[in-house]
Design goal:
about 750 residues; alpha+beta; about 60% helix; 7-stranded antiparallel sheet; elongated; PH-domain like
Amino acid sequence: MISPSSTTLPSNNRSRVKLYTLNEERQWDDRGTGFVTCTTPIAPNTNHALIVKSEVDGSTLLDSKILLNTKYQKQQETLIVWSEGDKHDLALSFQEKAGCDDIWENICDVQGKDSSSFLNNTNLTSESNGSTIYESDDECAGESNDNYLPSTITLPPVDLSHLRDICDLFSPDKVRDASRRDLLARAIESGNYIRKLIDLFHICEDLENIESLHQIYEIIRSIFYLNKSSLFEILFSEEFIMDIIGCLEYDSQLNYNDKRNYREFLDTKATFREVIPIVNQELLAKIHQTFRVQYIQDAILPAPSLFEENLLSTMNSFLFFNKVDIVTLLYEDPKFLSQLFSTLKDENLSDDKRKDLMLFLKEFCVFSQTLQQQNRDNFFQALATHGILNVIQVMLSLDDTTTKQAALDVFASIVECNPSTVREYMLQETQSTQDDDELLLNLVISEIQSDPDPELSGALNLMNYLKLLIDPENMMAVSISEKTEFLSFFYFRSMSVLLAPLMANSSDLKLARDDFHIAQLQNLILDFVTFCVEHHTYHMRNFLNKKDLLRRVLVLLKSKHQFLQLSALRFLRKIVGLKDEQYNVTIVRNNLFAPIVDAFKSNKRRYNLLNSALIELFEFIRHEDIKILINYFVENFYSDFENVTYVKTFHDLKLRYDAHRDRRERMLNDNSPIGSSRLHDNLNNSHLLPIQHFHQSQRLRKDERDLDAEEENWFNDDGDENKLSLINHGLIFIFIVLLVS
């Protein structure tokens, strides 16, 4: 009977559950872990209900009324699943079987059903406007057949003479209807039909009766598409699963000589290596089952047709819950992680054993993606506590490619889930490691640069994870000092390592190599530093000036690979787009439009992406009226563009320049006290605007570091807008002095 309602939160494992909901993509979303109770009504016209309270804060994760017409299913001994309304599917995964049995009996008592027989009754016909949690049953066009189907289906006897009749009964056009699938599943369960089919399969295989084996293949394949969890419990049981795989070897589209050897692969080639002894036999059996079911889904079953594409949602759910069980059982074992990491850290460990352990750890991290976010965070935090990042660091220093790749995959999983843990480790590492080559971050960068793939697919993925590490938006939870400390570490000890291939290839301001592989690598590096320009204003600006990075990047405009030319131009465009006065001064002072102009002239009148990107750069400068760049361009390069008339951009730049000059002349002729004062003030501030005419001027800084601090104080002052305005006015009067002189 139902236990009375309780106001206290249960704390025993018997009632501990995970709550899942099925999303629109037919994937299970973890909604949290808590304790479930079945409450009785406390007022008239109320219902019994399933209540799940969070084990974290006691909040209500679920409050579901138990209604008489709701179809509940009990699966895998620890799962209860049901549907509330259209496409609102729920599941409770119990930690213990006894807890699942208790709640199941409570549900059956409320609905007036026998708990021992209700499981089979749940497979009755679904209502036309809904489906159970494991059914993605889009009803066929036209009227439902519910009123025309009998309440049961009688299956033909299982023998050679009736195989054709059975095959016709399970033909694709007859299993499209959800109601018919329910009845077929019920008949198969009640008649012990799968065992009989397996017995007949063995007879046909002994007789080498290929035609009958092809028919059995079609029957078993159709049973999969009935999409019933109760049938999968039978198909994937230890007793039948290998025989089911054997049935699926005889694809009717293949002749006997082309028969697949799935069982031979699983028995001889797919060997199970227990890298850490697992004493829990239930866990061991679940690992074997999960591997075989995944193999069936990925390698054996043919790609579903259009109407079948949602008919394997049950298998997806079966695998999902199995993976949750596996990673939970391993993670909650207090001895397992300690034994795993003590073995990994053993200096006498053989290379093969170390490789197997890393591959296991990689798979362990993949399975952890099924955990709830908080539990997943705790899982990776536990790995960090056991020294996973130090282990990865050691693995990356080895020569074995497989071991290093597994270590990189684990590193990526940790960064994706908890980048702050990785940043914290890297900062601690700087205190004890003086050699930059031994730093974990630089070891990862080294793997990026040595990716043997011509397309650098692995390097691209790792670059994205590096962006996660240095992205300020991922540092919102840390203090400003910690954020600054990590970025300072990155730019001081790792940025030069990352840029090394680009800097080496552009020495002497010419390309040493221009093959596809090095071009791809430089393209990745450019994408990364473009990201840095956008997100790291202070650190990136100082680094760019110190290393003369922009000049080196613009050397890549000489590449024969247009994608690399465009990446270099995109880098400059990002800098110009910031409208940062210090960047603009750097461009003017170092005459960095010269490579741009050379690229435009080399491209001639070709109408391509490079041409459009170059024109867009100058159009942006004109539209935003960036005076220092307009003056610099017109005075130094306009003669090269004077005859470019297929766009108005360059002509308009000249008009904008002339307008600025006319305004300066009018202000020069203004002898009023206000004009004189303005002239005096701006001349006093003219040292803020170094341009090529002032390269030899004593107003230029003597010590580059002194002016960096001065510039930072300037831009951090509250009066930024006023001072920037003075800078722009200073431009006018500096050019007046130049014109007069």
